[in-house]
Design a protein that fits this description.
Layout (H helix, E strand, L loop, with lengths): L1 H45 L6 H23 L2 H13 L7 H12 L7 E7 L2 E11 L2 E7 L7 E7 L3 E3 L4 H9 L9
Antiparallel strand pairs: 1-2, 1-5, 2-3, 3-4
Helix pairs in contact: 1-2
Length: about 190
């Protein structure tokens, strides 16, 4: 009975830890939307528009777009960027999975060509696919992706002699890993 109670308690705590950041974001958005909705309602009265909810909704959407655009302009300021980075490094890194989701969102919002060099890393008599990040002083830093989600994995430092570059683009390489190695070049 005690064991069951401990499992239930542990599950509830895990659920709260997972749910809390989502709850906070939804609550903040709800507060902001409520505030902007009130402004939209007042603006429709000032403009003499019919007080139908369609005009309030449209005006609220326009106001939200303008506010987000202004925040985007403010985010380009160096001091704001430094403050954001400090906040992320000193506060948000304690929010479970924040850095993982932030990295994934940044990749989706700012896509760019992956310039990492695909490679094979020798481990005993086996070869494991990875990305060569850098090499110096006889050591290489290699990112060993997980499959099927190649955005996650481990960083290894190995002797450069154990790394063999593959003649593939990073995009082809990742696609091959998603397909359980189908199309992986080993030359």
């Amino acid at each position: 009975m005690k064991e069951t109670f401990k499992k239930i308690k542990s599950t509830i705590i895990s659920g709260v830890i997972l749910f809390l950041p989502v709850f906070i974001l939804v609550s903040l958005f709800q507060k902001i939307y409520g505030f902007v909705y009130g402004l939209g309602h007042k603006l429709t009265e000032l403009l003499g528009l019919d007080n139908a909810s369609i005009w309030v909704t449209v005006l609220t959407a326009v106001l939200l777009f303008i506010i987000i655009y202004v925040f985007g302009l403010i985010a380009r300021l160096t001091s704001v960027t430094r403050g954001k980075e400090w906040f992320e490094n000193n506060v948000l890194n304690y929010v479970p999975n924040y850095s993982k989701y932030n990295a994934k969102m940044t990749t989706k919002l700012q896509p760019g060509e992956d310039l990492r060099q695909p490679a094979l890393v020798g481990i005993n008599d086996l070869w494991k696919p990875g990305f060569l990040i850098s090499s110096e002083n006889g050591k290489s830093t290699v990112f060993m992706p997980s499959t099927p989600d190649t955005d996650y994995g481990e960083v290894w430092v190995v002797e450069t002699s154990r790394v063999k570059e593959i003649n593939m683009s990073a995009k082809e390489f990742k696609k091959s890993l998603h397909l359980s190695g189908k199309g992986l070049k080993t030359n």
